[in-house]
Write a structure and sequence with these properties.
This protein is mainly alpha-helical and 142 residues long. The protein has one domain. The protein is 77% helix and 0% strand.
Length: 142
């Protein structure tokens, strides 16, 4: 049976930190899985393909900053005045979860790059960038 959404700022913060932390633990899991998989070849992937994926990731981060400013920053302003406003809590949850998904998706671009034959130096920047984004966007108290 699904749990009701947390109705307080503290409950929402706790839930968001648990979700965010689980997604960071998943990144470590991806690294463990990749250490057990040998790539199909060691040639590396095409630079144009790699550049295209990197360009997509940069776009994702830009979209993430825009969404965070619209959802999270505005919610923080409302929650400072009315701490348990359900609409602001909902927008905050949406923004934080979308942000975490964007950070995780950057890591998930690095995973198939390695599996299809990319070298570790080609996939590692995606893992590093995604992890950095996840840590920068760690849920904070409004």
């Amino acid at each position: 049976m699904p749990q009701p959404a947390p109705a307080t700022t503290q409950g929402t913060l706790r839930m968001l930190r648990i979700v965010h932390g689980a997604m960071i633990v998943a990144i470590v899991g991806y690294c463990v899985v990749l250490s057990q998989i040998s790539p199909s070849s060691r040639q590396g992937v095409d630079r144009i393909f790699l550049g295209s994926i990197a360009f997509i990731c940069v776009g994702e981060v830009a979209v993430g900053f825009v969404l965070r400013s619209r959802l999270i920053t505005q919610s923080y302003e409302t929650l400072r005045v009315t701490p348990d406003d359900p609409t602001a809590l909902g927008r905050w949850r949406q923004g934080a979860i979308i942000s975490a998904v964007i950070g995780e998706s950057i890591v998930l671009f690095g995973f198939p790059i390695y599996v299809i034959g990319g070298r570790i130096d080609q996939s590692a920047p995606f893992f590093a960038a995604g992890t950095i984004v996840m840590l920068l966007w760690w849920p904070k108290q409004p």
